[in-house]
């Protein structure tokens, strides 16, 4: 099986939106509004400062994606790259797709002078946690808090 990781193009936006909808349902049983996620994905392509997507292709077929966003750290005078919206199609799981995407992002981040990679994972998603630990990532000592705002 041939795995290729590439930077996503605007033509991938619909597939990325569908994968985000599937990921939200699988991980949180959350239903995303297709119009909102569609606009959200397209906004990344319209404003590169927001980040970028990578797409994984297995034998020429797109089977997954992830989003990278940036967080400035004044303590370290550099950017953390956040890995978000990770999705691998069920038929491509356990084939090294995420491992390939992660290695690609890590190499890109190192080349860009980023100070680290971060991601968040659901507390109950032990399988993903084991995968991240297996890639050398360490669990942080922070809790994440959120305050949704009215739009």
UniProtKB/TrEMBL annotation:
Key words of the record: Acyltransferase, Transferase
One Pfam family hit: Acetyltransf_1
Domain of life: Bacteria
PANTHER family: ACETYLTRANSFERASE, AMINOALKYLPHOSPHONATE N-ACETYLTRANSFERASE-RELATED-RELATED
Keyword Ligase: no
Gene Ontology molecular-function annotations: acyltransferase activity, transferring groups other than amino-acyl groups
Name of this chain's protein: GNAT family N-acetyltransferase
Limits of the N-acetyltransferase domain: 3-151
InterPro entries per UniProt: Acyl_CoA_acyltransferase (IPR016181), Bact_Acetyltransf (IPR050832), GNAT_dom (IPR000182)
């Amino acid at each position: 099986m041939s795995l290729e990781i590439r930077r996503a193009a605007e033509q991938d936006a619909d597939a990325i939106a569908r994968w985000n909808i599937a990921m939200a349902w699988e991980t949180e049983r959350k239903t995303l509004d297709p119009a909102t996620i569609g606009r959200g994905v397209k906004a990344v392509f319209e404003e590169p400062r927001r980040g970028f997507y990578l797409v994984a292709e297995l034998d020429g077929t797109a089977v997954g994606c992830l989003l990278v966003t940036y967080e400035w750290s004044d303590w370290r005078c550099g950017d953390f790259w956040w890995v978000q919206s990770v999705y691998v199609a069920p038929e491509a799981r356990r084939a090294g797709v995420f491992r390939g995407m992660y290695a690609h992002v890590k190499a890109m981040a190192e080349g860009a002078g980023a100070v680290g990679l971060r991601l968040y994972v659901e507390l109950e998603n032990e399988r993903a946690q084991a995968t991240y630990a297996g890639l050398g990532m360490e669990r942080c000592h922070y809790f994440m808090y959120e305050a949704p705002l009215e739009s």
